């Protein structure tokens, strides 16, 4: 059986995703980086951008975050995001409805998410 890494994506309001994968690619503040099983322990600041979860060489899940921190350990990565959206389950209409009463910061995030879809 191939090695995998445990991934957790957490926001202040929910545990958005928890599963295992072959690799996860995250938007680090110093550039995009990938995390594979047995990765060296790292604590990295994250910037606004897309998270891609890979299994069998293909992207199986996509998320968009508004910054945060990645706590990388050899067997798992915990991503603490300020805001996050599951790109595979959100629609443009849902985002537009969410933007109606949003703050300026939230509208900026929603606009970036719409571009990523």
Architecture blueprint of SSEs:
Elements: E1 5-10, E2 15-21, E3 23-28, E4 31-35, E5 42-55, E6 58-73, E7 76-81, E8 84-86, H1 92-99, H2 104-116
Parallel strand pairs: 1-7
Antiparallel strand pairs: 1-2, 3-4, 3-5, 5-6, 6-7, 6-8
Keywords:
globular, ATP Synthase, domain 1, eight-stranded mixed sheet, alpha+beta, 2 helices, 117 residues
Verbal overview:
It is a single chain. Helix 1 runs antiparallel to helix 2. Helix content is about 20%, strand content about 55%. It has a single domain, classed as F0F1 ATP synthase delta/epsilon subunit, N-terminal (ATP Synthase, domain 1, Sandwich). The protein is globular, with a radius of gyration of 14 Å. With about 120 residues, it is α+β, with helices and mostly antiparallel strands. Strand 5 and strand 6 form a beta hairpin. The protein has two helices and eight strands. Strands 1, 2, 3, 4, 5, 6, 7 and 8 form an eight-stranded mixed sheet that branches. The N and C termini lie far apart (about 35 Å). The longest helix has 13 residues.
Would you state the CATH class?
Mainly Beta
Shape: globular
Percentage of residues in helical conformation: 10-25%
Beta-strand content estimate: over 45%
Count of individual beta strands: 8
CATH topology: ATP Synthase, domain 1
**Overall pLDDT confidence:** 95
Q: Counting H and I runs of at least 4 residues, what is the number of helices?
A: 2
Radius of gyration: 14 Å
The helix/strand class is: alpha+beta
The ordered string of helix (H) and strand (E) elements is EEEEEEEEHH
What would CATH call the architecture? Sandwich
Report the sheet with the most strands, covering strand number, pairing sense and barrel closure. Answer: 8 strands, mixed
Q: Which segments are poorly predicted (pLDDT under 50) over 5 or more consecutive residues? A: none
CATH superfamily name? F0F1 ATP synthase delta/epsilon subunit, N-terminal
């Amino acid at each position: 059986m191939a090695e995998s890494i445990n991934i957790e994506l957490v926001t202040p309001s929910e545990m958005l995703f928890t599963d295992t994968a072959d690799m996860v690619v995250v938007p680090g503040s110093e550039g995009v980086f990938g995390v594979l099983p047995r990765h060296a322990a790292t604590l990295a600041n994250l910037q606004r951008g897309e998270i891609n979860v890979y299994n069998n060489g293909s992207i199986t899940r996509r998320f968009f975050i508004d910054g945060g921190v990645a706590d990388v350990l050899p067997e798992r990565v915990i991503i603490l995001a300020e805001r996050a959206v599951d790109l595979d389950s959100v629609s443009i209409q849902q985002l537009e409805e969410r933007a109606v009463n949003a703050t300026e910061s939230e509208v900026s995030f929603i606009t970036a998410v719409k571009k990523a879809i």
